[in-house]
């Protein structure tokens, strides 16, 4: 009987503490559950934040795509305008009518002989002081370069006109060759190079009827390069220096376009 007493006491103590242990276990489970819920809430918030960030990025990308699409459409339209302009001039040259880019721009609106491909009479004064055979050779070389340009092989045409100018810098066709060399770069939208070559027309061949055309193209290039102030100044100068001409009319049209576009 004496030995059973401690065992009984121990069992009694264990049974007495069992509810407390169970209570602690229950409290621990609740804390663990709260922590899990908290972690899940944080993860959910992070996911929501990340989702909102992705949505903003998608919206920004959509905006950029729309802007790029608009810019691309503008470039396509300008490219079409350039091609149509060149085609129109070349058709005028082929038909013998005055061509705007071939010297007709700087001339009065009244019909005048084309000058991009001078006929025998037009080049006759210069040819009179040149060897007859050399004159024919130069005309053939110039015509070959012009034919390449008409075929739309602009870079080959640029090489041909450049070669012509190197071989015949004082030719009666030099001003025309210089102009069409610049035009070849202009059509292919190589504007810095085209600007340099058109300025050569103005500076080197100041007496040529290509000067008005070249100055107008300088203004157009400033427009293409979005140098609005320089474009306006150049257009105003063309209007002032060549009143009543096709060049002045085209300059006025481009100024009106600048105004419509709010440039």
TrEMBL record:
Region (Disordered): 97-125
Tree of life domain: Bacteria
Keyword Cell membrane appears in the UniProt entry: no
GO cellular component, one term: outer membrane-bounded periplasmic space
Domain YbgF trimerisation: 28-99
Role summary: Mediates coordination of peptidoglycan synthesis and outer membrane constriction during cell division.
Protein name from the UniProt record: Cell division coordinator CpoB
Highest classification ranks of the organism: Bacteria, Pseudomonadati, Pseudomonadota, Gammaproteobacteria, Thiohalobacterales
Gene of this entry: cpoB
